[in-house]
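tool=predict chain=A
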Amino acid sequence: MEKDIAIRRALWCSVAFNLMGALMFLFPEGPLGRLVGMPVPVPPLYNSTVALFIVLFGVAYAWLARSPVIDRASVAFGAIGKASFFFLVLSFWISGAAPGLMVLAASGDLMFAAFFARWLLFKE
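tool=predict ok
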């Protein structure tokens, strides 16, 4: 378990990152949403659903971080999800449908995805 300390810390940081992201989507007119230029108004069902899934991923990261053995498939799924979200936001920014600050915010997901992928590739 000692050897997995770095991935466990990254998973816990990802939990906090996801909670902030969920707040941004749940309250797009709030300070975090305004900071990155979230579109408003948003039908409550849509932003609540997105926030729910972000929280569920956060719960999964917390579960993984507390597990005696970290499931590699779950880390891979997290890496794919985080990288996919970043590239989705990036593609919307390229098409002019998302603000640049949203790409900057989503770059945290890309960093977590890279860390997770590195752990998967180079874990002893």
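Residues 86 and 104 are 9 Å apart (CA to CA). The longest helix spans residues 44-66.
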